[in-house]
Input
Amino acid sequence: MKRKQLAPHIHADQPAAERYLYVLVALLPAFLGAVFYYGIRILILAAVSMFCFFMSDYLISEKLYPELPFHVDYSSLVSGLLLVLMVPSSSSVWAVALAALFGSVLVKQAFGGAGANVFNPALAARAFLEFAVPSQMTAVEKPFQGLWDLSTLWTGKPKNIGAVNSAATGFVDIFSGRLIGMAGVTSIVLLILGLLILLERRLFRFEASLAYFITIVVGYVPFYWDHLEFRQFFMWAALGGILFVGIFALNDCTTTPMDPRGRIVFGFGAGLLTLILYRFGNSSYAMIFPVLMMNMTTPVFDRYLRPRVFSKASWFREVEK
Output
């Protein structure tokens, strides 16, 4: 809400609030798809997550920086909605609320607010849930099961735990998102629709996402040489949230490098770490932790990869003087 330094997105034509508002619109297709498959629980979880993110941002800003006016830039609402799309539909309300508070207070506001945070707040909140309530993050429910069942909102335990049968899954299910996985990351068609909205508003930066996707596609062959299958690749990409991360997490202005060269390396590193974790590590970490690990490199890229100041040989050497 308050920026202690110039945020990367200040170089864009649109104000930050307008940009975040259009990102919310781009997330709507995936969100509506999640509501269609999992019912009213997604609406409630989204309302709780967005409310906790927004109110904690507001209260901390008013308490710590009372001399500055509070600016609504919708970043907290974007983070809240992203978090809900990355959790199972059976997640409990209290777990999502705690994760939202963690992402807002410790990940964003502790670093100075929107534009100053090192890590993506939504992904960091999702990582918090992976350690705090791992059982809720692995107990995924089948689509269209318990559309009006609210019991899981308190227990976090689904009544119809499902497992993916790759042999019986067709391309229609894969591309539509009718899979057993996270609430809003599995639909390839709906995510591409969100991408088109970002492209139409000129809010999508290609470098990191393109490097990420190329690394995933090219690396899939050597990493999965023993069981290569065309359909299996798309199922893996959908269930693993590959497209979701590439479109939204790697397009975050604050936590990805400002320089295009840095974003290319960022995307390559995130893609390589994703392949390694899926193949040799814990696959449940592969959607979020590669991006968070590469977030740590963003300040380094922003420190050394910047346009040369006119008549200056090196901008940071002049600053250090």
